[in-house]
Amino acid sequence: MILTTCAACAAPLAHEAPRCVRCKTRYCNSTCQHDHWRRGHKQICKKIHRGGNAEQYDAENKYKDAVVVAVEACAADTKGQKCYICLEAVHLRTGEGLVRGCACGDRGGVASPELGVAHVSCLAEQAKILVAEAEEDNLGWKTEDERFRRWHACGLCEQNYHGVVSCALGWACWKKYVGRPEMDDVRCMAMNQLGNGLHAAGHYEDALSLREDELSKLRRLGASGESLLVVQGNIAGTYDMLGRLEDSLRMQKDVYSGTLRLLGKEHYDTLREANNYGDSLASLGRLGEAKSLLLKIIPVARRVLGGSHDITLKMRWSYARALHMDEGATDGDLREAVNTLEETERTARCVLGVAHPTAKGIETALRKARAALRAREPPPGAA
Fold first, then answer.
1. What confidence tens digit (pLDDT) does each residue in 292-348 have?
2. How far apart, in whole angstroms, are the C-alpha atoms of residue 186 and residue 282?
3. What is the residue range of 33's domain?
4. How far is CA 129 from the centre of its chain?
5. Is 345 or 40 the better-scoring residue by pLDDT?
6. Which of helix, strand or coil describes residue 113?
């Protein structure tokens, strides 16, 4: 990614790394810059400049690629449908096909194929208009933040987009706001949105590179402790997906304790980080610690967020997972895990939809918990 690495050798870049004078492509040193010029940059430099310079040009190309991937992934689900925004099957300007990556259409296990189907560009246009109106009319930060949600959450079912659709919208958001000043609030949110999208699509190395660059930028520009903790939590989550479990746990512990101290136990960010820390503990086999923490925070999450909130569902999933993974689990523990997961799965399918990663993960955990419980049961006919 041009955003974080040298265009010639892919080495990580310092903030003050040299740039092409014309198109602003970044390099780790002048040697790489000269080598890249000889290897073909000379032929495309003007094209990149006309495309808005390196960051914008890169974002535009990555966005187009991400849309193609999202449309292909959603083809079976959207066959024969039309965009609920423009009412066309194929976008008249871009020629792109349809996507759906939210809870519309499959809540409660009942398919409604006409719901939530749209073009990525139509979803992006709606989000752009809403954020622009909030800025132009000075509606305040709270309203602006609520409207920015349309970059990552469906306006119909109000659930977050996931998978490759989230990634495509992440690139759409980034290409819209990348040209703003580094500490512009909306640009910072767009960078975070892109990181979330890359993570959701499984591009963990790219997500980590972006997150680390984001953290470095925030530190350099003197961002608030709360902002730094959010990015560190995201980095810890990416470590986890890359199998760097010890690194993830160390960072997650610091993020949770810092967020708890700064924002209090009932704040949304604290509950999110508590769940992530508990999940990290369980992943490393520290099941007693995980169960103790989750038992303490689940009632708080239910009271503050509600029993059907994504974070509450994840907490109960993590707790049940810790129960049935424990080698010393009693029959009662296993039955509690199965009962918890059965209830949680029903709620997740109803609220998030059957295709949501959380719903799928709970379903997988339920199968494992049931298998563990069956293994304890005596065979038929046994005394």
1. 999 999 999 999 999 999 999 999 999 999 998 988 889 999 999 999 999 999 999
2. 35
3. 1-50
4. 23
5. 345
6. coil
pLDDT for res 44: 83
12 DSSP β-pair partners: 5
Within 8 A by CB and 6+ apart from 151, the residues are 124, 127, 131, 169, 172, 173, 189, 190, 193
Q: Six-digit token pair at 357?
A: 């990663």
> Within its chain, how far is the Cα of 349 from the centroid?
19
> To the nearest 10°, the Cα dihedral for 318, 201, 360, 158?
90
Pairwise CA distance, residues 247 & 235, whole Å: 10
With 0-12 / 13-18 / 19 or more C-beta atoms within 10 angstroms meaning exposed / middle / buried, residue 378 is exposed
CA 157 to chain centre: 18
| Domain termination site, one of 10, 32, 50 | 50
pLDDT above 70 covers a percentage of the chain that reads 95
Residue 375: count other Cβ atoms within 10 Å of its Cβ: 8
355 assigned to some structural domain: yes
Angle between helices 268-283 and 310-325 (to 10 degrees): 20
Which residues have CB under 8 Å from 158's CB, separation 6+? none
Write down the pTM of the prediction: 0.89
Query: Domain for residue 7, yes or no?
Result: yes
pLDDT of 278 strictly over 70: yes
Number of domains making up the chain: 2
